[in-house]
Amino acid sequence: MARKAARAVDPAQFRPETHRRARVEIEFDEPTLLGAVFGQFDSNLVQVENRLGVYIAARGNKIQIEGPEDSVARARDTLKGMYHRLEMGQDLDAGAIESLIAMSSEPTLEGIISGDAGGGEPPIMIRTRRKTIVPRSATQIEYMRALTRSDVIFALGPAGTGKTYVAVAQAVSQLMTGSVQRLILSRPAVEAGEKLGFLPGDMKDKVDPYLRPLYDALYDCMPPEQVERRLASGEIEIAPIAFMRGRTLADAFVILDEAQNTTREQMKMFLTRFGQNSRMVICGDPRQIDIPGGERMSGLADAVGRLEGVEGIAVTRFTAADVVRHPIVGRIVEAYEGPTQ
């Protein structure tokens, strides 16, 4: 397959004296997928070239990459990852490519490309009725493994890293297979300038806006009619954390979102609801605390400090490098987390 658009790219421009040069050729089995790998007017290849400083030439089902040795290796792995996503029926957009480029510097990427996790383990993915989710950052690989191995998982990090979305996908997958009987999603209803009492409607109407991100993730993983039916039957429950008091949550996958806005007492109450054959995921961004007293009073910071290292409890920390939304979101997070001018 010939290149769709010629670009005035001189390989010599990528020839810094301090780097060893390399040239590799990769061949793909299914030429019909290469149009999607290349993108419209080769936009996907241009994205890889610009990000990694390599030159890519394609003909038929073969792609040749030239540039600094380490960049060529990363570009090769990125292109294989793009092809593999399409083989699996996954979407391939600019965000997915950006994530594959970021992951290409990690030694675990080869396991994702070849379709297994290494060491004879099955592929790292979460299957739901509406889609199959695969890791889009190196930390998501660690997180997905923790979601299948640990009883209580703390997921810490900025917005856009997939903390809640991946947890909801795993919960839906386990509900579909029958390994849990209930899915319980909770979140503190912290007021942000308004008073709940002044919002219109009954209590459900007042707290639903705080829980909307959980609904959005659910509808993305399950057909809407199934979500509504399971909400009506009680198989799926979405409620503020205050509604958890006095309960034992057995045979359930339980997710607490925005956990940085819990108090110490709320967090202790929530964690001690844990029942037989259950899994708990606590998601939050320690740098976005809205409760009075900040980190000093946050139940999330307190719980991680007390429980990290305890058997059966895992802690996954995301950074701006793990943001899987538009690339600009990662740059915004880095700007806010860095030193002020």
Automatic annotation (TrEMBL):
Its main location: cytoplasm. One of its GO terms (cellular component) is cytosol. The keyword Coiled coil does not apply. It comes from the Bacteria. InterPro entries: P-loop_NTPase, PhoH, PhoH2-like. It is found in: Cytoplasm. One of its GO terms (molecular function) is ATP binding. Keywords: ATP-binding, Cytoplasm, Nucleotide-binding. Residues 133-337 form the PhoH-like protein domain. Belongs to the PhoH family. This is PhoH-like protein.
